[in-house]
Design brief:
The protein is an alpha/beta fold and 344 residues long. 44% of the residues lie in helices and 11% in strands. The structure holds 5'-deoxyadenosine (5AD) and iron/sulfur cluster.
Length: 344
């Protein structure tokens, strides 16, 4: 047993406790639990941001449909398959294909072909994660049958009222939860996540986010700090003084605490040290690993497009490889969620 209980009231207390010694003990306890349960190794997912065209209009996101300043791109099928092949040669066990959300047939069939071709060029060896938003059950099944086996769909905020403030009225929290169910039904290892340090968000909301992940029995998680993007409605609301967000230091610490608490609650899942952490601290991802994370997603998007997947400010200045110090990497391995393996 450890000294960090995970009922809602205790989670709120831990999230609010800013005592340095408490925080470092929390991180250390989570790291010990990780090493005992799933080992020391960190697994890589090469992240391919294949397009920043998006049908949605989330208030916080720099590539929302309503941002005319975003320079839109879509990488060709051949270039995507080539990047994936290069990643495979370099020892990546897995890649993650991410894009804005689209539902047109051209996009859906393009993704299907890309998955098949990547499986072919890697002789079935490269694991494929998708992060392509809300889709129908039949589309999820089609991509699964083509060879993808993990899917990330962040709930963003598990509290429907908070979700409602961050999205236009036609974006549905209930639909998103339904999609997480479809993903499980289709056979994927299912990942979700939230943003941390959002306007209006309370410690109670964050505790509920952790409980949501536990109750859904999620296989993997990617969560990170909210980072304002200057051309978004949410940033305008914050600069009008209507509502504020925690400081950069607080958002970093809160994000690391969320990783640590989730690791204590769900010892055998995969938890990503997300890119957004790196914007707040050059050692952000390394710190997340020492607080319980076990997945890193280096960006392998072809460089010509890389500057334009700007979800938040500061992203384009990041370097390709995160500072990982002495961390041991699981090359050529899928690094599947042990939670998933023990459930199926
Ligand atoms: N700050 C932090 N994360 C963001 N995302 C989108 N916009 C922002 C932002 N401004 C995250 C969302 C989405 C993921 C692809 O990027 O959680 O699911
Ligand atoms: Fe599109 Fe995702 Fe950005 Fe929302 S967060 S606008 S769905 S890319």
């Amino acid at each position: 047993m450890n000294n960090f209980p995970t009922d809602k009231e205790s989670l709120v207390k831990s999230l609010e406790n800013r005592d340095k010694q408490f925080v470092s003990e929390l991180f250390a306890a989570a790291n010990v639990i990780k090493e005992k349960t799933i080992g020391k190794k960190v697994y890589l997912r090469g992240l391919l941001e294949i397009s920043n065209i998006c049908e949605k209009n989330c208030f916080y996101c720099g590539i929302r449909r309503g941002n005319p300043l975003a320079n839109r791109y879509e990488i060709s099928e051949d270039a995507i398959v080539e990047s994936a092949g290069n990643a495979y040669e370099k020892g990546y066990g897995s890649i993650c294909i991410q894009a804005g959300e689209r539902h047109d047939e051209a996009f859906i069939s393009k993704v299907t072909r890309i998955i098949r071709r990547i499986k072919e060029v890697s002789e079935g060896q490269l694991g494929i994660t998708l992060s392509l938003g809300e889709q129908s059950l039949s589309v999820y099944k089609k991509w699964f049958e083509a060879g993808a086996h993990r899917y990330l769909l962040r709930i963003e905020a598990s509290n429907p009222a908070l979700y409602g403030k961050l999205h236009p009225a036609d974006h549905s929290h209930a639909e998103r939860v339904k999609c997480l169910g479809y993903l499980r039904e289709a056979g994927y290892q299912v990942g979700t996540g939230v943003m941390i340090g959002l306007p209006w968000q309370t410690a109670g909301d964050l505790a509920d986010d952790l409980l949501f992940m536990r109750d859904f029995d999620i296989d993997m998680v990617g969560m990170g700090p909210y980072l304002p993007h200057e051309d978004t409605p949410l940033t305008k609301i914050c600069s009008s003084g209507e509502v504020s967000i925690p400081s950069r230091e607080e958002r970093l610490e809160l994000s690391l605490k969320m990783v640590a608490l989730l690791r204590i609650m769900m010892p055998d899942i995969n938890i990503a040290a997300t890119t957004a952490l790196e914007v707040l601290d050059p050692k952000g991802r390394e710190k997340a690993i020492l607080a319980g994370a076990n997945i890193v997603m280096p960006n392998i998007t072809p460089t010509a497009a890389r500057g334009d997947y700007n979800l938040y400010d500061g992203k384009k200045n990041l370097t390709e490889s995160p500072a990982l110090g002495e961390i041991e990497i699981g090359y050529n391995q899928w690094g599947d969620s042990l939670r998933f393996k023990s459930r199926v």
